[in-house]
Amino acid sequence: MNILITGATGFVGQSLCNFLSRKEQVNLIVGASRSETKINGCHKTINLYCDNGQITVQDQLVKHLQNIDVVIHLAGRAHVMRDSGFDIEAAYYKANVEYTCKLAEAAAQSGVKRFVFLSSIKVNGESTNHPFTASDIPSPDDTYGCSKKSAEECLFKIAKNSTLEVVVIRPSLIYGEGMKGNLSSLLKLVKRRIPLPLGAVKNKRSLCSLDALCNLIWLCVMHPNAANQVFLAADNKPISTVELVNAIAKGLGVKARFIKIPQFILKLVGFCLGKKDQMERVLGNLEVNVEYTTETVEWTPEQDTQTALARLLSSTSNF
Predict the structure, then answer these.
(1) Of 92, 93, 144, 175, which one is the catalytic site residue?
(2) How far, in Å, CA of 34 to CA of 53, rounded?
């Protein structure tokens, strides 16, 4: 089997390339990246962009995808909380919708069998009263989530009109070696033993292990039941923000320090600082039900987020 992975130098991409390189069924792994530097686990690296930053024209994409059996599309514009500006919607559309659709169209023309797309739980929404399920009607709240939803719709339209099989994976917040973003920022605060005003927070949020996610992507490549499906990805049980901080502290070998401040005060402070959405994400619930995923492709998610996260941090010096 020959596999092409976009975003191969990214957080998920690097781990996935190494993971797939150990599979006997995989003959060739092509890593697609803006730089053609060597990627561990990949047999070959290519650049799908022109010199001006635009995606390669369609006939060149088709040429690159000759003899490729499966495309795993990880590349895209990631969600960044500080994103703002007049053109941000266009930037997300270009990276997450236009690029995805052009690549999938070329894959269909090239005879690629399956297209696995890493989407986001943000397609379902930002918060939950009841755990999200794969059958929920999408309800994204921000530009990033809307762009991922539009990309999914485009992919299934292409699949309907071709022989290309599409698989969509919507992971919750991913943790693993090399993680960045909000988890990395929280890790730095805990490492410095800075007291966090989260002692009164009692919420439930689902995280997703990078190792388990790589295994799910592999199952979506191989499993016949995965064709033209949407799968949610998360650890088996959600944890609270306090439990998350305690797990990080345990892994780093420090003691977590909390200050108990009522949630309504934290929300008010967030509103006054223009950080209302960010505060809601820290304080609110986001639970994910992965039963459909586990039953359909026989996936085993991480069972204990706290233990897995603590173990990861205690065994790695990269944090």
Answers:
(1) 144
(2) 9
